[in-house]
Amino acid sequence: LKPVEGPSWTIFSTHGLVLFQLARQPDLRLRDIAATIGITERAAQNMVNDLVSGGYLERTRVGRRNRYLVRGDRFLPHPSMRSHSVAEVAAVLASTVRAPESAESCLAVVFACSDHRIQGQLRQLLAVQGLLDRSETVLWPGAPWALDSPSGERILRAVKAVTPPGVQRVLLVAHRGCRAPEAPPREGWPVLRQAISRFRRTITPRVRYTFGLEPEAWFVDGERVRGGARAARSGGEPAAAAP
Ligand SMILES: [Zn+2]
Predict the structure, then answer these.
(1) d(CA 181, ligand 1 centre) in Å
(2) Which residues, listed in sequence order, are joined to residue 174 by a DSSP beta bridge?
(3) Arithmetic mean of pLDDT, 50-77
(4) Residue 118 C-alpha to ligand 1 middle, in angstroms?
(5) 143: CA distance to ligand 1 center in Å?
(6) Ligand 1 centre and the CA of 195: distance in Å?
(7) Can you give the chain as a three-state secondary structure string?
(8) 157 alpha carbon to ligand 1 midpoint, in Å?
(9) Are 231 and 240 in contact (CB under 8 A)?
(10) pLDDT tens digit string along 209-222?
(11) 6, pLDDT greater than 50
């Protein structure tokens, strides 16, 4: 393997790279597969043969070219990945090639509580979401509850004014027992449920109005981080509300 830049190893095996190249373009020639991945044509041939005999690819001759059908219903071969189908991975990797985002671009605005106990989890959340160093994080006590207060709209407008263009996500990160400084202390599960419904009723429409984006509600609870984009978009009961 000879990547143009970056490390000398890849996240996916070369077989995986061949498979997803063919998922993108089913009539790709062996020499093009080889050139794209950086292997010999003979190696590409062997891998295609392995994938065909393993049931991951079906090969048919169409005129002078081979045409390949990727079997999305097959499960990933590695024991640790067997619960995932090829289709799940192909949905992400085989879709149209996107221009890589520049490392400096700001992809998200994050409203999070400044409570020191959640900063480690907040960092972990941002890292997993690919937003570390690529998000504008607004921290203050009780955030994002302050967005629910009378000054909430003013805060949102002020943050929007200093947010670079190209932001695609707005994350609201709260935690169990989190409250704005002026609010009375409340503890326990009902508070989390109350929090979610307040996000929906007041904070979500405000964020939508100011940023033109559907906010994602994330909750940090002890060791766990829950929530996400899907819950915010579906309008259904977020995963965070489940006991
Ligand atoms: Zn808090």
Answers:
(1) 9
(2) 219
(3) 92
(4) 8
(5) 6
(6) 12
(7) CCCCCCCCCCCCCHHHHHHHHHHHCCCCCHHHHHHHHCCCHHHHHHHHHHHHHCCCEEEEEECCEEEEEECCCCECCCHHHCCCEHHHHHHHHCCCCCCCCCCCCCCEEEEEECCHHHHHHHHHHHHHCCCCCCEEEEEECCCCHHHHCCCHHHHHHHHHHCCCCCCCEEEEEEECCCCCCCCCCCCCHHHHHHHHHHHHHHHHHHHHHHHCCCCEEEEEECCEEEEEHHHHHHCCCCHHHCC
(8) 22
(9) yes
(10) 999 999 998 888 76
(11) yes
Rounded distance from Cα 117 to ligand 1 centre (Å): 9
Q: Which residues surround ligand 1, an ion (CB under 5 A)?
A: 113, 115, 178
The reported pTM is 0.64
The pLDDT of residue 190: 54
- How far does residue 176's CA lie from ligand 1's centre (Å)? 8
Q: How far is the CA of 178 from the centre of ligand 1 (A)?
A: 4
Ligand 1 centroid distance, CA of 113 (Å): 5
The pLDDT value given to residue 110? 93
How do residues 73-109 score in pLDDT, each as one tens digit? 999 998 998 888 988 888 777 665 555 566 568 899 9
Give 144 Cα–ligand 1 centroid separation in angstroms.
8
pLDDT at 100: 57
Tell me the pLDDT band of 225, cut-offs 50, 70 and 90. confident
What separation in Å is there between the alpha carbon of 184 and the centre of ligand 1?
13
- Inter-residue contact 70 to 22 (CB < 8 Å): yes
Spacing of C-alpha 99 from chain mean position: 16
